[in-house]
Amino acid sequence: MAKVKNIIRMGIGAVLAAWTALQAAEADAGANVVYWEGMRLVQGQIGKLEIVKPINLWKRENGALTFVRVLQPGEQYRVYSYDEAFGGQYGVGGGYYVTNIKGHVVYKTPSREKLKLVNPGKYGARQLAVGTVVKEVSTRIASGVEKEEMEIVGTRGKQHVYKLDIDTSNERLAIETALSNDQVLGIEPVLEQAKRYDGRDGIVLAAVNGDYFKQDGSPTDLMVHRGEIVMTNTTPAAERTIFGISADGKPMIGNPDVQIRVRIGEGSSYPVDGINKPRRAHQLMLYTPYFAASTKTNALGTEVVLTNVQGVLNGNGTVTGTVKKVVVGQGNEPLQPGELVLSGHGRASDYLRQAKEGDAVEISLQYDQPEWNGVKEAVGGRYRLVSNGQAQSFAIAGVHPRTAVGIDKNGNVMLVVVDGRQPAHSQGMTLNELAKLMHELGAVDAMTLDGGGSSTFVVRQPNGQLKVENKPSDGFARPVASALLVVYKEMQENGEQEEVLDDFETESKWSASGVNYVSAAVERTTETVREGKQALKISYDFRGMPGTSGVYASREEPIWISKRPQAIGMWVYGDGSGHWLRAQLRDGSGRRIWIDFVRHVDWTGWKYVEAAVPSDVALPLMLEMPVRYMETDIGRKNAGSIYIDGLRAIFR
After folding, report:
1. Rounded to two decimals, what is the model's pTM?
2. Which CATH topology does 497-651 take?
């Protein structure tokens, strides 16, 4: 009853927020935590309503409608019912309704599978080909990246599945390849690869293992990193599958190969057999510093060192260079930054011997499938699990841990790891079972990456640390040749820059905590706004409390900052209380750092404030508590509210 009385005292915006908060609290008590389109689904919810044009909000009492206010474009509400009365109305909670008027509202509904997770009593348990989902937890890692962890029980026994969904339309997200120790030869755990790449030009949010690899640690097939071919194929076309990110940023799966030819001076061109692979009889290989410290070749050949290299080794392009020296009968030539080495044996050695110091050299590269020209990232795999929306069949036995990558109908990417070889935790799957699973999870195209003891699922934790979340079958994360990373990219510098951390326009979930307070609350609101349609309202009551009082505002989804900022800024609608306004950061070393916006909020109305960030913070950086509103003087303790808007990181 007390909850109802509190709701009656609030305005409509607060009522709806309180209602959905109450629903969320009930959901927490027994249902799975599930996200959909950045919104946390709650028990009873059937969809959401997006306001496109101004439309009335109604209160229904005793069968009659009472006008409340006009909803504005950009506002969104959870929907709990649809009633054909009064022309068709969406119930948005608390007895409030919005009429279904075409062109003014857009209604969206989650998949039945997601609704089952938050309403198991109504929809029943989720059924998959491999068994029944008995538990599923969905967590938003960052904007556009969601993690799902599923526990499945089937005829084979238990299965544990980990899944990442990546929104490829988010321009701040990238899927990139990583190479063990930054070299083709050798292996390294996925976690260590992710840590090394972390902070190079963005924050690594998650990672899984990449291609199968040979005894020397080299990946089996094509690998492209940041637009440069690291290694060419080994496996025949009919037996290989490659995942790539195209020149325009679209994910794709295929079996491309690249044709390479070299021309020295005015002579004829000659085929190059590959990039960064061991040189065999009569072959001509091209080596880059990605391979190792040297070419690792024997003395039975000729090696031509190229300097003044111009261009990028990728499809549909040309790379030029100048002969620095020609080395005959020695082998194992050092690989230096900014240089390339052509290495030939037998007939290829004879071709290279014509080179002379100072000769111009041209290397042309062309994929056999034009859509792969200029591909940004690529990593090899093995089996095409789903093709053209159809799960494929395999006459291959074996139940093992698995790693897969898939693409859904909207062009988004999913990374999936299935644990195995641990009966009490997870049995593992056959290729046929994995193919059906990927199809059921929404993949219209999918393939395997390396599996078995290599299967590794790394995710950045709320404390800022990267961690292996699955249970690799070896009992530890096996060193592997390569990895796929999900990266939150840093901004490109061009004078002073701002990175918007939250504009409070989306369904981000905020919560209040604090110390020595009577009450504390945080909600997104349309009451008082500086930019856009919504701001964040922080309410507090410190009256009569001893010691230091404070209300703290935190977002459920971590706020990652892509590189080291000089300041954190935001607009603040002050209440003239004179309280202390701070923020709390957590850096890559786990250290907590407190920064000050102002010592006294002594104004009423909107004012822009900034807090300087120390220059020695370790990356990656998380804005753990954007607002810490505090008071130490017992004589100034009161109750009130402030609003914040346009939360941003400043780069100078």
Report:
1. 0.76
2. Jelly Rolls (2.60.120)
